[in-house]
Amino acid sequence: MKNFRRHLARKAILATATALLAARASAATVVLTPTKDNTLYGPGDKSNGAGVDFFAGRSGHGDTLRGLVAFDLAAIPVGATVDSASLTITINTPNASHTNTVDLHRLLADWGQGLSSAGRGQGGGALATTGDATWNFRFLNTPDSAWATSGGDFAGAVSAFDFITGSSGTAVFSSAGLAADVQAWVNGTAGNFGWILVAEDEVTTGAAIRFSTREATTGKPALTISYSVAAIPEPSTTALMAGACALALAIWRQRKVA
Fold first, then answer.
1. Could you give the angle at the alpha carbon of 14 between the alpha carbons of 13 and 16, nearest 5°?
2. Is the peptide bond before 43 cis (omega within 30 degrees of 0)?
């Protein structure tokens, strides 16, 4: 009889362990393309909302260029833990001698992408259209839409950076800071307005770096996010877990009586 009770107790313990294993976290990875991107040309109200390129640095025209990019994170479940984040952008700078370090900063205000499209090379920008983000405005021709600071409102901390050289290849921005930005957006503790690309050298004329936008035929920006979600036990597993505990308690009481 004692051996039988021990056998039941072992089965109860095994069932409980199985239920606990079922509650382990699950992991997943998503790759997202931007919902919008643009370039600020400063000073002034030029833009390149529908263009195939965006920039960071100082153009040959003497404009200071800052790229904007944002992503929709609806594919990531609420409550997920962001394990890592990496932003990959295709480089297509015309002059291979251009080098610059480009920093990503988290944007603090929303902005727009209109229909402007710059001409050849796109470094000179185009006349901004309604809804475009510009150096001075988040949404051109929209009331109360000026940036608090011309050139964009963004966090002072650098989320990620990359040293870029050459006329092709990819820039990869990946860091704990970038993952923290995405986590804050998923949690809803910060507004998801994307990032601004700011070159560390905005003084040297012609040192701007050119990247492909989401409008480009190939080489669109890509945000890769790995995340984990704590699994919720299925009702059957929960019932099994409760039954196993009750059975173990009943066996213990029988042993006490015996």
1. 65
2. yes
